[in-house]
Design a protein that fits this description.
The structure holds two protein chains of two kinds. Chain A is of the alpha+beta class. Chain A folds into three domains: 234 residues, no CATH class; 87 residues; 119 residues, Heat Shock Protein 90 (2-Layer Sandwich), CATH 3.30.565.10. In chain A, the strands form two sheets. In chain A, strands 3-4-5-7-6 form a five-stranded mixed β-sheet. In chain A, α6 packs antiparallel against α8 and α9 packs parallel to α10. The longest helix of chain A is centred in the first third of the chain and has 39 residues. Chain B is α/β, with parallel strands linked by helices. In chain B, strands 2-1-3-4-5-6 form a six-stranded parallel β-sheet, with helices on both faces. In chain B, α6 packs across α7, α7 packs across α9 and α8 packs across α9. Classes of the chains: A alpha+beta, B alpha/beta. The interface between A and B is large, with 41 and 38 residues.
């Protein structure tokens, strides 16, 4: 008994009802594309019939009448539809995907939008739109599935439920006096039409309906599974696409993680070792002060020397630690690139003209990469170019951070010649960025770094 | 422990307890009074309103964001209490921060690396200078700002020696201090200073502190 109960529960779970709902909704949606061929063939035929019906006498004389126009128009629409198929399919399959998400909780990632500029490129992008054509393919392949879904919903679910109501009808409509001859009532089943003419017969119809309704969920489940399988295969991202997306996500995480870790390291140094050293140096300084005040006491000179040496060491250690911490992560970067670059520019021995226009703040990892690129490029320009002035321009657009370092030096910088430029290019590449160098002999040298706003 | 300037009332803002206590001890050992020590920018603003100190010592990086709240609190305090001396301490020197601090008035402003606290006498002198309306800029600040303001008009006419004098002036040193640093006599320094004022077209006047004006002209990015 319990086994049957569990089976019934599984059969009529909320999931089964959702599948029924989905299957039922997919039927008109899937069949809707039939409108196109029906309209395209139906319209000329209809026009032809109307014209010939209205004026049969002139049919021979005017073969290229309205009917001809209708055919031409239909052909024109057909071509337009074929050209636009990817875009139309994208629109229509978006509804399928939304339905799967809403009703079944099956999230299928949609394709990236088509990118194009201008009408020619628009047409080219449409015709070459792989995901769009795959969506069109889905619509065609899903058509028989929609028919099958229709069959499951109408013949198994609806007819089954109707059959189960037959005994009630009998009680309501067939309470006739005995001896009256009744015409048999048809009963629709998947295996043909039965006819019942007796009360016992209606119970047989009830039983048949019960079996149909019991089997129906499995049928809809099969149709829904097949539909979802098609959707994942044709509407979702392909295997390579998914892999690329996964890798991109993983890489972005790794890049962000590394940046976060460096920030934490710097923060720990700042709040820990650096503060302790500063306090140590301060205390030693106070001790020195005290010792200075009691200079004339005998035997203190040596102590003073020792404390003095410790004091100096503590100060040197602070300087070294500060340089180290700054190399790990310049804290001013937390305030954004403009502040950090201003300090960088000010610290350069060759005058730097700095312009920053950053509308959208990049992620921290990107800011860090941009900062170190700028630092390295400025150092390069100072060391190798013999420039009198350096220009550093940083512009942030909606999707791109552009960093450009120009100097008026003698040029001839070669990224291939083992300079730091190759390393920078490598660093930019870790986030799909680019580095471009133009440095003709005699100058000027211009290095452009292009970074995305997020890793 | 003879203090050059007895009885300054000081408020300290620093989030690291160890350093904060050391700082309080140092300041008190120079004969000043620490009215209140706090650990963040908002508390600093509140403490200044309550204790009305002569000078504030503030760390740049404090909770909650650990970026520049000390600096922002300092700027806010400067607007609300123009006569209050503000000495900002930082683990790093950032040009942009210095420029923001010096934007409209360098009188009563100090910006030093935390390292400088190790030289107790110098630090105490800087604190007293700031309290008295002078400036105390870290040599690193000065050298950075100078590089970024090299094209400023008038400065081009200065001789290298006059630039040295001006840089030391920007750090907040007196003529005697400059003379000691450059190993020259005080009268030589006075001559240089007068020449700098002339070249920067700063006529003598009672109201403005010409030294501060010269420094500002010098540092303006």
């Amino acid at each position: 008994m319990r086994g049957i109960g569990a089976a019934a529960q599984a059969t009529y779970s909320a999931r089964a009802l959702r599948e029924l709902l989905f299957c039922a909704a997919e039927v008109p949606l899937g069949l809707s594309i039939l409108v196109v061929p029906v309209a395209l063939t139906g319209l000329p035929v209809l026009v032809t019939l109307l014209v010939s019906g209205a004026d049969p006498g002139h049919q021979q004389a005017q073969p290229a009448g309205p009917a001809g126009f209708a055919v031409v128009a239909a052909l024109f629409v057909l071509v337009a539809l074929l050209v636009l198929a990817p875009r139309l399919a994208r629109r229509l399959t978006a509804v399928h995907r939304r339905l799967a998400g809403r009703v079944l909780g099956e999230q299928i990632a949609g394709p990236k939008p088509i990118r194009s500029r201008g009408p020619v490129s628009w047409l080219g992008a449409t015709l070459r739109d792989g995901p769009g054509w795959r969506a069109a393919g889905y619509l065609l392949v899903q058509l028989p599935l929609a028919v099958l879904g229709c069959y499951a919903v109408v013949i198994w679910w609806a007819a089954g439920l109707v059959n189960m109501t037959y005994p009630l009808w009998w009680a309501w409509f067939r309470n006739h006096p005995p001896g009256v001859q009744l015409s048999p009532v048809p009963v629709l089943t998947p295996f043909g039409v039965l006819h019942v003419a007796t009360l016992a017969g209606t119970f047989a119809a009830f039983a048949a309906g019960g079996l149909m309704v019991a089997a129906a969920p499995w049928l809809t489940r099969a149709v829904v599974r097949a539909d979802l399988w098609l959707m994942r295969g044709l509407l979702g991202p392909g295997r390579l696409e998914r892999r690329v997306a996964d890798l991109e996500r993983a890489r972005a995480l790794a890049v962000d993680d590394a940046a976060t870790m460096l920030r934490r390291l710097e923060r720990d140094l700042h709040d820990g070792a650096q503060i302790r050293l500063a306090t140590l140096a301060m205390n030693l300084g106070m001790a020195m002060d005290r010792l200075d005040a009691e200079q004339d006491k005998p035997g203190l000179a040596e102590v003073r020397d020792l404390v003095g040496a410790a004091h100096q060491s503590a100060k040197d250690a602070m300087t070294e630690l500060r340089d180290l911490a700054r190399g790990i992560h310049p804290p001013v970067l937390d305030n954004g690139l403009p502040d950090a670059l201003a300090t960088l520019a000010a610290a350069s021995p060759v005058p730097v003209r700095l312009t920053t226009a950053i509308a959208h703040r990049p992620s921290q990892a990107i800011e860090t990469i941009a900062y170190y690129c700028a630092a390295e490029l400025l150092a390069n320009a100072v060391k190798h170019s013999g420039a009198d002035t350096i220009t550093l321009t940083v512009t942030g657009e909606a999707e791109l951070l552009l960093l450009r370092v120009t100097d008026d030096g003698h040029g001839g910088a070669d990224p291939a010649a083992g300079s730091g430029l190759a390393g920078l290019a490598q660093r930019a590449r870790t986030v799909d960025g680019r580095l471009e160098v133009t440095s003709p002999p005699g100058g000027p040298t211009q290095v452009t770094v292009e970074l995305p706003l997020r890793a | 422990m003879a203090a050059a300037m007895p009885g300054l009332r000081v408020v300290i803002a620093e989030d690291a307890a160890l350093f904060r206590e050391g700082l309080a001890r140092l300041i008190e050992s120079r004969g000043h009074q620490v009215a209140c020590s706090v650990a963040d920018g908002d508390a600093l603003v509140a403490a200044v309103a309550r204790h009305e100190p002569d000078v504030v010592v503030a760390d740049v990086r404090m909770p909650p964001t650990h970026t520049d709240e000390g600096l922002r609190a300092a700027l806010e305090l400067r607007r609300a209490h123009p006569r209050l001396g503000v000495l900002v301490l930082s683990q790093y020197i950032e040009t942009r921060y210095a420029a923001r601090l010096l934007e409209d008035n360098a009188a009563g402003i100090g910006y030093l690396l935390k390292d400088r606290v190790a030289d107790v006498a110098d630090f105490a002198a800087a604190l007293e200078r700031v309290a008295a309306g002078g400036t105390a800029l870290d040599p690193e600040v000065v050298s950075q700002l100078v590089r970024s303001s090299q094209q400023t008009e008038g400065l081009a006419e200065l001789t290298p020696r006059e630039r040295d004098v001006l840089a030391l002036m920007a750090e907040g040193r007196s003529n005697a201090g400059i003379a000691a640093a450059l190993v020259v006599t005080a009268s030589v320094v006075e001559k240089h200073v007068a020449s700098i004022f002339a070249k920067l077209r700063l006529p003598p006047s009672e109201a403005d502190n010409r030294r501060v004006l010269a420094v500002l002209r010098y540092l303006q990015p």
